[in-house]
Design goal:
The chain has about 375 residues and is an all-alpha fold. Helix content is about 70%, strand content about 0%. The protein is built from 15 helices and four strands. The chain has a two-stranded antiparallel ribbon. A two-stranded antiparallel sheet has the order 3-4. Helix 4 runs parallel beside helix 9, helix 4 packs across helix 13 and helix 5 runs parallel beside helix 7. One of its GO terms (molecular function) is transmembrane transporter activity.
């Protein structure tokens, strides 16, 4: 049965849409989940396990590095800052390392990973395609292009925040351009949007290559950060800038869960069940753009997280987006914290670019998923 098919059976048409405005729509958001108790138990265990894994990895990431801090002192330092005088604490240098270097990096990695995981689940839902990810509509390459333009031209209207701001604007503008270019007669088709995204990705890639060709050595080092991805430049001010956007996006995402379940039936059946497909897709794309652009604006391009994470969660929690979206958010944060820990410790004192590491792991998974889908469907033709 297609994803959301069980939920669709319980759907009734209603005269007004609380999210979509005045267009006739359904009461799908108020319908109970058609999920067996065992699935709820399994999904609950998954959320608890992901939360525990994220907490454990956070402690390990705080303890690991050139200046080692015992895990007990990492926990003790956090508890003391929270007003709970429990456990040992590190010395002054250890406190400085934890709160000025490692904790900002871990916090930013959690936000970026959670935003990318959530955006990936939304993209695969609204495109009804398990091979979709945020980068398919050009948001990652657009953000990188915005940052590189500022680096190469030297424009800095907002001081040190000019590159980050240009990356965010570049990501959002690219998604808007893909949506407008693929829209015809008031409607957008998924395949047209995907092909438009591929074309725009190729165009931004060509411009990036041209700008890289004309850049000097110092600019090349900055460009490398945006094209390969890294958390090495994490600071508390960056965390403060990204946190409101990422948290707002993650909180808003479950609102669309029931509609995304119905998208699995196809645009036509979803319309017949009362979903305003165009309005929902437009709002989901805006949410994906904000989540992904805010993440890429501080980390550079980190590929395959939005593609791989929803698949891993779907294997355990099933296709329902009310569990898939928060599960992908937690799993994205957990996996990226682990990947960043590996990136800065595997080749210490050097650091492997985070985007390279996620691509090395994500590419084989993508090939495996392609073969798995082909074997299930009996071919693509």
């Amino acid at each position: 049965m297609p994803a959301g098919g069980a939920a669709a059976a319980d759907t009734q048409v209603a005269p007004a849409d609380p999210v979509g405005g005045g267009a006739p729509t359904s009461v799908v958001d108020d319908a109970p989940l058609a999920t067996e108790p065992t699935s709820w138990v399994r999904s609950g265990l998954l959320i608890v396990a992901l939360g525990a894994a994220l907490a454990a990895l956070t402690v390990v990431a705080g303890a690991s590095g050139a200046f080692r801090v015992p895990p007990a002192e990492v926990v003790g330092s956090v508890l003391h800052r929270l007003g709970l005088p429990l456990g040992p604490t590190p010395d002054a240098l250890g406190e400085e390392v934890l709160w000025q270097i490692r904790f900002p990096r871990v916090a930013l990695t959690v936000l970026v990973g959670g935003a990318l995981g959530c955006a990936g689940a939304l993209m695969q839902g609204t495109f009804s395609n398990p091979l979709a990810e945020p980068g398919i509509v050009g948001v990652s390459s657009g953000a990188a292009l915005g940052a590189v333009v500022v680096i190469v031209t030297g424009l800095a209207p907002f001081g040190t925040w000019s590159i980050t701001g240009a990356a965010f604007v570049g990501g959002v503008v690219t998604v808007f351009a893909v949506y407008v270019a693929s829209r015809h007669d008031g409607r957008t088709e998924v395949i047209t949007m995907v092909l438009t995204g591929i074309a725009l990705n190729a165009l931004t890639g060509a411009v990036l290559g041209l700008l890289t060709y004309y850049s000097d050595d110092a600019q090349l080092r900055s460009i490398t950060f945006w094209t390969l991805g890294s958390m090495a430049q994490a600071t508390w001010p960056k965390v403060a800038v990204v946190a409101p956007l990422a948290i707002a996006g993650v909180v808003a995402a479950p609102v669309f869960a029931r509609r995304l379940d119905l998208f699995a039936l196809g645009d036509g059946p979803a319309r017949h069940l009362g979903v305003d497909v165009e309005r929902t897709r437009r709002r989901v794309l805006l949410l994906v753009a904000v989540l992904t652009a805010s993440a890429v604006a501080v980390s550079g391009q980190i590929l395959f997280v939005g593609l791989v994470v929803p698949h891993l969660v779907r294997m355990v929690a099933g296709p329902g987006h009310r569990l898939l979206v928060p599960g992908s958010t937690l799993a994205g944060a957990t996996i990226l914290v682990g990947a960043d820990l590996a990136a800065r410790t595997m080749a210490a004192p050097a650091e492997i670019p985070l985007g390279v590491l996620t691509a090395l792991v994500g590419s084989p998974f993508f090939f495996w998923q392609l073969r798995r889908m082909r074997s299930r469907q009996g071919g693509w033709a």
